[in-house]
Design goal:
The protein is an alpha+beta fold. Helix content is 64%, strand content 8%. A five-stranded mixed sheet has the order 1-2-3-5-4.
Length: 450
């Protein structure tokens, strides 16, 4: 009962594979007709190759119709022996060829034993009867080529060809020996080549589909990271500036309106960045992120200090450092309760280092609040995603308590690009030149003690 149940399961699996192959063939024919209609020679769907089951090799058993005719017409001595031999050959052939389409079953010992028995039955029938029974040698070569794929195929095929030619020569002479040997060689080699190519095509198609799925997953991860960095920073700035506007309104309406104007600008810019992130063409600018960082820190009553030195950076490097500034400043505004934040960019001809340090609660906030304290917050996914991004670019990101309190985030990246190394002095440029004035001109709003 177990054998019959296993056989029914195998037949059902073969039927499912056959149905899948037929569906692939229908798609290929439809794509070929569409390609011809549009005047192109290459269809959009590749040919699925022969069906990946033993059904593809069953029609070749028609080569034994001559032997079956001899048995039925009484032209074979001892027809019962011939009939049993014919039944044994067909059974072993079906068993071997169906197992040849599964790599594990193809390389198992039972398949090799069945192939050896098939060779013995073929030899006995060919030497005992000759004539039409010699056509079992090409069928044996076909089963051998389907089973023995790899480095041993050439030797096995050559030995089988010589063996078939010698057996035919002993039974019916040289005239039939050359034809049977040639047919055996072709059947073994061509079958192995076609089935091997078909299996390689199926593996390549599966690998391509897996790569496509991975590409989709990576794009989703990239998009989720971009949205996290964009919306997290933007919403934090909106909340801080809204709080500042609410507190300034009773005392200084002009300052409150200025904060509201900043909220509108931040919202519009966030909408633009989200649209750019959706299309995948967003390029960060370090100078823009530093300017936004100064504005956000000032609105949160945190004194911003920006220092920048070194040669100009490549756009890719600036984009990565801009993400670091955005994430670190967001954590300072949300968690640190700091009064001062220093952002330092130091570059050489080979590498560039960005350091964001605050004097906030530091490790105490991490221990007490759990959500993270200052720039060293590790509870979210922002710094983790930035660490992966910088590692992919050959850099590194570290975050931890500062020696004098607070937290420090340090990003180290190799300098890429073909820009000429024109030094930029400390405190020069758009970022550093406006650092001190920004701290003085933006109204600082003190939080009331809680």
């Amino acid at each position: 009962m177990k054998r019959w149940r296993r056989l029914r399961c195998q037949v059902a699996a073969w039927q499912r594979e056959r149905l899948v192959w037929r569906a692939d063939m229908r798609r290929f024919r439809a794509a070929r007709r569409a390609a011809r209609y549009h005047g192109t020679d290459r269809p959009a769907v590749e040919h699925p190759g022969p069906p990946p089951t033993g059904f593809a090799l069953l029609p070749w058993l028609l080569l034994g119709m001559g032997s079956l005719s001899n048995v039925l017409q009484g032209e074979t001595p001892n027809p019962w022996i011939g009939g049993l031999g014919l039944l044994a050959f067909n059974s072993l052939y079906v068993y071997v060829t169906f197992r040849a389409f599964d790599r594990a079953k193809r390389e198992s010992a039972s398949t090799r034993v069945a192939l050896g028995l098939l060779g013995l039955v073929t030899t006995g029938l060919a030497l005992g009867y000759g004539g039409n029974w010699l056509m079992f040698f090409p069928l044996l070569g076909l089963a051998t080529g389907a089973t023995l794929r790899g480095p041993w195929l050439g030797r096995a095929g050559l030995l089988l060809t010589l063996y078939a030619g010698a057996a035919t020569w002993l039974r019916d002479g040289w005239d039939d020996a050359s034809g049977i040997a040639y047919a055996t060689f072709l059947s073994s080699m061509v079958t192995a080549a076609i089935l091997g190519l078909s299996e390689a095509v199926r593996e390549l198609r599966a690998a391509r589909e897996e790569l496509a799925r991975r590409a989709v997953a990576e794009e989703r991860l990239r998009f989720s990271r971009d949205l996290h960095d964009l919306l997290g920073h933007t919403l934090s700035v909106v909340v801080v500036k809204s709080e500042a506007a609410r507190r300034l309104a009773p005392r200084d309406m002009d300052a409150a309106l200025a904060q509201i104007s900043d909220i509108e600008s931040v919202g519009r810019q966030a909408l633009t960045e989200i649209r750019e992130a959706v299309t995948g063409y967003r390029e960060g600018s370090l100078a823009t992120e530093l300017a936004r960082a100064r504005s956000a820190l000032s609105a949160a009553s945190v004194e911003p200090v920006v220092r920048q030195s070194g040669p100009p950076l490549a756009p890719q490097t600036e984009a990565l450092l801009g993400w670091v500034v955005r994430e670190a400043v967001t954590n300072v505004v949300r968690h640190s309760r700091a009064g001062r934040c220093e952002i330092t960019v130091e570059g050489t001809a080979e590498r560039v280092r960005l350091t964001v340090t605050d004097n906030g609660a530091g490790a105490a906030a991490v221990t007490a609040g759990g959500a993270g304290g200052g720039t060293g917050s590790t509870g979210g996914t922002g710094l983790k995603g930035l660490t992966e991004r910088l590692a992919a670019a050959g850099g590194s990101l570290t975050a931890g308590p500062a020696p004098r309190g607070g937290f420090t985030v340090t990003a180290d990246l190799p300098v890429s690009g073909d820009e000429a190394p024109t030094p930029v002095g400390t405190g020069t440029g758009s970022a550093a030149a406006t650092a001190a004035p920004a701290a003085a001109t933006v109204p600082r709003v003190r939080r009331p003690p809680s």
